[in-house]
Amino acid sequence: MDTGNFLAGICFLLLSLNGFISSSPATSFCPDRCDCQHPQHLMCTNRGLRTVPKPTTRVPEEVLIFSLGGNFIVNISAFDFTRYSNLVRLNLQYNQIQTIHPKAFEKLSKLEELYLGHNLFSNIPAGTLQSLKKLTILCGNNNDIKNLTSDLFANLDNLVKLRLDGNSIEVLQDSVFRSLTSLHYLHLESNKLQHIHRNAFSKLTNLRFLNLAHNKQSSVRNALIFSQLKALTSLLLSENEIQYVGNHVFQNLKKLSKLSLSNNRISRLDSGALKGLSSLRELLIDGNELEEIPAGLLDSLERIEELDFSRNRISTVDSLAFSQLKHLRVLKLKNNMLTSLSGDIFALNNVLYDLDLHGNNWTCDCRLEELKRWMTAAHSQGKLLTVFVQCHHPATLRGKYLDYVNSSQLQPLGNWTHLCRSQAGPEEIRGRGVLVKGEGKENGTEGVGIQGDQGGLGVAESSSSPERKKPKKESLSPRSQPAAEAAGKRAKSRDSTDANTGLNTTTLVQSGEKFDLLRSSDQEDALPLITDPCVFNRHFITNVSVDQVTSSTVTIYWITRDHHRYTPGPGPGLDEVHYRILFDRFGTPDRFPRYVYARGTARSVTLRELSSDVTYMVCVEGVVGGSVCQVAPRDHCAGLVTLPEGFSHGGMLTSDLQLVTVATLAGNAVLLLVIGGVWLGRSLKRRLQRRKTAVHVRHMYSTRRPFRSAVATASVSADFTSYQSSRPARLAPLEEGDLIEFPCDRFLDSNSVRRDSDMQRFSD
Question: Hey, what's the signal peptide range on this chain (predicted)?
């Protein structure tokens, strides 16, 4: 009885404590339709409220956050927040507030964050924010504010971030932000700003971020506007109507790292417009109407890393425009009106890796030959991403990319001949023939042959010539094409094919004379030169293989036969034979081959920066005398699949997989043996147990032996003897075939129920 009273008392105490907690001040004050579960946060968001809810009792001091966003509150009265004097954050966003009483926030002296965005008020009465001396964040974005006065921000010395974007502000008056000495971030984008007073940003010496995008400014002329923003690092002036940028307007912005002038109407930048921007790293001036980039305009941008001139009308870029930009990494000139660029324009931009020239009307003539050379060299050193230069003129090359155009096809057009090099550079055999000339010393004659796509024709000196001369190459002009074709037909009759190598050669010997391509060393002075890279690929490159495949790298190996007796050595306009490796994604829609060049005696190249889990086709081809074959030799290609992220080298992976497979098979075999042993052991155990527990009737009650009373109980023997005695005399004595084995529990049945007959006791 005492125990029951004690438990009843405990239950009553718990119920009383629960009632005390539920009626504690932390939740008893909670207004209707609000959530007060968190002691510091009063949550009234999205509750359909039309006014600020009133607390039922005194608001506890621990309530610091009041969220009223997403309701239908229209007015803020002078008494709505008088009981919330300890608030640190007040959120009134996404309501329909049209008016705010000047004394609405008078009691919120501890408030640090005030969010008034996405409402309908057109002005904030003077003095409304005066008591908010600790305010650090003020958001009044996306309202209908038209005018700002300096009195509005009085006493806000601690304000760090101010958002006034998405309003209807047209003018920034003199010293309108003079009280905001601690301001770091100022958002004024998406307004209707047409005029900014030259002292509008005075006293903002700590401002780091200024956004004036999406406004209606027509020019940037006055250097005093930004003169006091000495700490500014980001200035956004995009999406305005700016047509002109004057001299020295940014000269005091010594710490500015990003300047955006995108999507304006700028047609002219004064020569000193960018002066003083010594720390600028990113300049965005895309989407304007610039027509040229003159020399000296960008020279003051000592630390610039990214330039974007996309979507202008630029048709001229001075060859020295980027010469001083030692840190330039990204340059975008896409979608302009460029037709040509100087070959050495990027010669001093050693860290440039991302160059976007797509979408211009490129004229693929000899003026682009140097640019092509620079791109090839930069690609071979892994310094440059793929550059798309798609030919627009002439019509015969329209749609082709400069990487795939022969140097021989870059012919001078119109009156540009004087700008082209007098000597043609390395030529690529791509589809049009290359005129090759050779001189015969003996008779002073000159032989001409045409090298085709698959390079059936080479040029050799006459066998009687005391010296082997290097072939000279000249580009075919449209006028000389018929003559070259005729010369090719004449040379065809003198073609011979070596039976051993299959090399086609064009000899300049008299009719009936013959020579062997692979001569002995004593006749080396008369050997023909192999200047056709297609022939070189077929007969001298062997055993292309891949190894050490990872998720982003692979090593390519190949073997070359001795070719020094048959290929031209270094000379004027010619390089020694070297190799380039073409690698391309296989089976993917976005395909564009890249090349890596291996010079010297190297017979392996490691490709890097590959994509993981992608199929690639890799081909090795020779570069003979500066020329390459049109079609990569498929006999010298290999396919590979890069590993997914996290996998190790290909060779190690293969061996690891083999080891894992062997280990798995061995483990399975051991497991099968163990399972078989366990099963066999259990089977034997069951048999032994069955033998031990079984009692053989014939051993117990054999008619040939006397009954052993020690084996069974008296009742059992009596039952069984009565069964024996009931057998007819003609069946006695019992035969061994009539005896049945019964388990012991049959005889030791303790069931007291008597069976109807003796036969039912033992029959199943």
Answer: 1-23
- Which residues are within 8 A (CB) of 529 and not within 5 positions of it... i.e. 6 or more apart? 458, 459, 460, 468, 470, 471, 566, 567, 568
Q: Give Cα separations from 290 to 69, 121, 262, 333 (angstroms).
A: 46, 41, 12, 12
Whether residue 254 is contained in a domain is answered as no
Q: Which residues pair with 581 in a beta bridge?
A: 596, 620
Residue 495 domain boundaries: 434-529
Q: How far apart are the first and last CA of the chain?
A: 60
- Give the DSSP H/E element, type plus range, for residue 595: strand 594-598
- How far is the C-alpha of 416 from the C-alpha of 433, rounded, in Å? 23
Model pLDDT for residues 366-400, shown as the tens digit of each residue: 888 889 989 888 888 888 888 999 999 888 888 88
Distance CA 280, CA 253 (A): 9
Under 8 Å between Cβ of 250 and 259: yes
Q: What is the DSSP letter of 637?
A: E
Taking only the tens place, the pLDDT of each residue in 396-453 is 888 888 888 888 888 776 655 555 654 343 333 333 333 333 333 333 333 333 333 3
pTM for this one? 0.57
Asked whether residue 452 falls in the same domain as residue 485, the answer is yes
Kindly give the pairing relationship between strand 434-439 and strand 446-451. Answer: antiparallel
Looking at residue 746, the DSSP 8-state letter turns out to be: H
Those residues of the chain that have pLDDT short of 50 are 1, 13, 15-25, 422-527, 571-574, 649-651, 695-764
Asked if 484 and 408 touch (Cβ cutoff 8 Å), the reply is no
Q: Contact, 646 vs 600, CB < 8 A?
A: no
Whether 554 is covered by a domain: the verdict is: yes
Closest residue by Cα to residue 365 from 315, 419, 313: 419
